[in-house]
Task: structure prediction
Amino acid sequence: MKCHSANAAVENTFVQFYPTLLDFSVEKGLIKPGVHIPLNQSRFEKLIVNSGWDKAEAALPRGRKLNPESDLMDMQLWRIPLARSHMTRRWPKRFRVTLMTKEYPTSAQAYDDLGEGYKMNSQPQPAIEASQKALSLVDSDGKLSADDKKQVRDSAEKRIAELNKK
Result:
């Protein structure tokens, strides 16, 4: 019982080992004083939605420092919610540039996503520039498979062609 009292994040419950319970406990303010729960991907996304981009961006360095093994900076996990969610509707340039291309400066995928974000937000010139950057990086991006490289290349070329027609 002493172990639970001393180390559990909520009363005598180790919610820190159960992501859904942990997120709920953090959201409801149930975490015991003195227990620090590092930022993770799902809480980061909620922070963006509930508190805005500036607070989320400010929380990022501390979250990464306190929990370097978390999914917080996993680009593959970021791509789905950022590309398809409400976040893209009012998508500030600074957010994607800071959190994708800055963290992954040699990633063709990051720049391809950036180009798509600009296109979705009716910013054709930045979309073209980001897509061109993706093309310049795609062959040297060692994290992409041959199929992924083809997909990025096709996506960027198609976007550039569409935007140049307008």
Notes: Residues 146-165 form the longest helix (20 residues). The CA atoms of residues 39 and 59 lie 8 Å apart. The two ends are 68 Å apart (CA to CA). The chain has a mean pLDDT of 78.
